[in-house]
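Whiteboard transcription, Tuesday session. T.W. wrote the structure tokens on the left side:
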């Protein structure tokens, strides 16, 4: 059964969607997202360090229980146009607690100012720099929504370049198909296509770096997928699960009822804590 906080958020989001007439300017979307989650707290005892990772701003979260031999590269969501270290600040801190390891959040370049392959290049460069002090098998790459798709695209690029692969991937409601062919998108397809166009620029939307669902998944490390049963991107996760199995890739998929897209970043929800605990168990099982 959904918590009272989850029920209230679901009601509020349904009302907001019914009143929305058009997509807001990207600058306002960015500001609104950070404002919307600014009240969320960081768990007591989590240490935070801002630094540069492969030339990009990054933020490390860790606890006194941190595993020094292992770590996580985290790629935030936001349709490749929105999101930041600040929008996912509380979430990444809670993830550090759940995994008992350090979380390296990357401020990759956003579209439309920096279209594809900027975000993918940043993610790959960040991972390669992390390899200088951590074995690839001891790194998990994770992300939500567009960040989940970016995490998968990053792993595929690493495979193509014969770079040491990460130990596992955790994908929260990943956006894996920028052609937006999933039936579950239905009435919001035009909104997703707008973000896809901002990021893709002159590249075909079925380019694997943009839409990793169309890539060769063979040889990838174990995957964890978390997705909400009735959300708009659920078909992206279902198809990814099926393709992973066809490619002999280990895949665990958790389908959550009575929630919303990337509810995990709302760290005052009991459902978020349960989901993050599952990510932590997956991480410690494979890293």
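and on the right, the sequence the group agreed on:
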């Amino acid at each position: 059964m959904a918590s009272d906080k989850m029920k209230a958020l679901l009601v509020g989001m349904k009302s907001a969607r019914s009143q929305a007439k058009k997509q807001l300017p990207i600058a306002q979307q960015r500001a609104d997202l950070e404002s919307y989650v600014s009240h969320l707290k960081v768990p007591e005892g989590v240490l935070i360090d801002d630094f540069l990772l492969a030339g990009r701003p990054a933020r490390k979260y860790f606890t006194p229980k941190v595993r020094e031999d292992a770590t996580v590269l985290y790629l935030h969501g936001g349709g490749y146009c929105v999101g930041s270290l600040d929008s996912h600040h509380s979430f990444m801190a809670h993830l550090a607690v759940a995994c008992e390891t350090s979380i390296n959040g990357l401020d990759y370049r956003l579209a439309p100012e920096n279209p594809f392959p900027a975000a993918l290049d940043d993610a790959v460069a960040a991972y390669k720099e992390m390899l200088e002090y951590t074995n690839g098998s001891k790194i998990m790459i994770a992300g939500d929504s567009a960040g989940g798709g970016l995490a998968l695209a990053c792993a595929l690029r690493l495979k193509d370049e014969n770079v040491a692969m990460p130990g596992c991937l955790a994908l929260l409601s990943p956006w894996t198909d920028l052609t937006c062919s999933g039936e579950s998108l239905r009435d919001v397809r035009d909104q997703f296509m707008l973000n896809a166009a901002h990021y893709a620029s002159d590249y075909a939307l079925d380019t694997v770096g943009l839409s990793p669902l169309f890539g060769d998944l063979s040889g990838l490390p174990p995957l964890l997928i978390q997705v909400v049963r009735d959300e708009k991107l659920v078909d992206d996760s279902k198809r990814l699960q099926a393709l992973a199995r066809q490619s002999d890739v280990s895949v665990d998929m958790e389908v959550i009822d009575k929630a919303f897209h990337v509810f995990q970043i709302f760290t005052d929800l009991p459902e978020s804590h349960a989901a993050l605990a599952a990510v932590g168990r997956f991480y410690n099982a494979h890293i």
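Someone added at the bottom: Strands lie at 47-53, 56-62, 71-75, 102-106, 139-144, 168-172, 223-228, 251-256.
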